[in-house]
Amino acid sequence: YFFSFGCTECFFLAVMAFDRYLAICRPLHYPTVMTARLCTHLVVSCWVLGFLWFLIPIIIISQMSFCGSRIIDHFLCDTGPLLALTCKKAPVVKLAFSNLTLLPLVILFLFIMGSYALILRAVLKVPSAAGRKKAFSTCGAHLSVVSLFYGSVIVMYGSPTSEHEAGMQKIVTLFYSVVTPLLNPI
User: Fold this and answer.
1) Is the pLDDT of residue 68 over 60?
2) pLDDT of 174 higher than 80
3) Does domain 1-179 have CATH number 1.10.1660.10?
4) Would you state the pLDDT for residue 33?
5) What is the 3-state secondary structure (H, E, C) of 123-181?
6) Where are the domains of the chain?
7) Per the database record, which ranges form the G-protein coupled receptors family 1 profile domain (predicted)?
8) Are the C-beta atoms of residues 117 and 66 closer than 8 Å to each other?
9) Which helix (H) or strand (E) holds 44?
10) N or C: which end of the chain has fewer CB within 10 A?
11) pTM, full prediction
12) Average pLDDT over residues 154-174
């Protein structure tokens, strides 16, 4: 689940950072660059890339055998709880999933931080305090969501699954999968 939803959310957060960059650093070009067609392409790309990224884990997991209880002690189908149900423990598979999770997270996080570094540089050049305040208020909400999302994902996936209690896993997963997307539009 994280692969499809989490990656999709990462792509959306990166697109939103790009949107903020254009609005603040290139305000005169914004209407000509950020057209309805480009917006549609960006949204569709986020969903498609998020789901395509999930195909690799689906293929790998579908080839594994499961034994014992077939009840996932989670409210969504995440790779950690699924791998816990496999008959043969596969550290190589866990390592591969960790790397597949980290790759888009790190790349998109660096893109977001790069966008905000350029925004910060542009905002600090604004001569009026009111202009700087308006620019910072535009970015503040998005940066809050980025911080909440990446903070909870790092807590969840930055350490081995076995270190988390089942209850804690559920709370953190609920946070990055429900709370941050709900806060995004706000």
Assistant:
1) yes
2) no
3) no
4) 95
5) HHCCCCHHHHHHHHHHHHHHHHHHHHHHHHHHHHHCCCHHHCCHHHHHHHHHHHHHHHH
6) 1-179
7) 1-186
8) no
9) helix 36-62
10) C
11) 0.81
12) 67
